[in-house]
Amino acid sequence: MSRFFRAFAFIAVALSVLLAACGAPATATQAPVAPADTQAPAAPAATEAPTALPAGSVQITAGGATFPYPLYSQWTYAFQLVDPSTVINYQGIGSGGGKANIINGTFDFAGSDSILSDQNYTDGKDLQMYPMVASAVVPVYNIAWNLPKVGAGTPTPAAPTAKLILDRQTLVDIYNGKVTTWNDPEIVNLNPTLKDVLPAKPIVTVHRSDGSGTTEIFTNALTSFSSDWKAGAGQSVQWPIKDSLGGKGNPGVAGLVINTPNSIGYVEISFAVSNSIPMAQMVNKAGKTVTANGDSIQSDMADFGSAAFDAHLNAKIVDGSGAGSWPITGYTYIILHTKNMTDCVKASKILEYLHWALTDPLAAQAATKLGYAVLPDAVKQQVLAKLGEVTCNGQPVMP
Q1: What would the CATH number be for the domain defined by 2-134+331-396?
Q2: pLDDT above 60 (res 13)
């Protein structure tokens, strides 16, 4: 552990640069997202292996969920400064791809917001999930406001600054195709100050086209919100609206919403913030209007606590009952083989990285700055204890 302390000052400087860079949300033109038909973005150059690696370097291949991609990009960059011999390449290909590639042995570890199925555990033989952080899935929208027409030479009226408010039933009704226009009374009643500017235009719904943990969190929430939601919950579902638009990855959904007037979609909060896409507020289970942020995510986690986890450390934490809780919240997980890793040096490096990410104050600061919520201490201790059970060639990997 001594090298971590020797590197602390260096990491502090590096992460301060990273955090400063993400302190002011970029506009869509400053930080464009990938179009809907493209892959999730490649990892930044800083996370890729340098052309000449130090002797004894270990290259770790990982990938999966795009939900934590912004955070993992910063973490993997920072950890290479802690341990220059460890190069981690995390590919944002979606939770479904992450699960498939950890099962078939292509990835050394995977990221997923979607819980492994019983069949996944059978196929993967010795897989374990480890929550790393929690975050919010947020409804994002692009409304072409019904602004007053003005004559030539008169400044165009500004779009309203008030955030759109949705409640649990209305969000279900929108994705069920029951609420079909932006000036529907159900929306107007929740937004009386926007009554005159909500357009009489069809709502265009946007969803994930790939197997997605973000979709699983979102549809778990819809299932909890109302018995009217019949499509169920999972990393992919049969969407009730036949002409709903599908985007690949969080970047694809964000890109579609940005480029489609009168659309609504759902993304992990950091994708909304970094692209300056308006996020709806939600009326939660307690009847309170809440905004997605670190406090409302922490409140939701507290509603469920560490008792929510099963033996695989899986937990659903949507629709908490707290007055300040964001209702569409989920953990993002790392998936590891716990007994079948045979490269013990690589296994040790992976666990050192995960231990650093869970316990280093600067790693936590990076997560918070991006809108993620770090694990409560009781949950973190459960995760660290589970990591301590990982073996390689029959021997414990962590001291």
Answers
A1: 3.40.190.10
A2: no
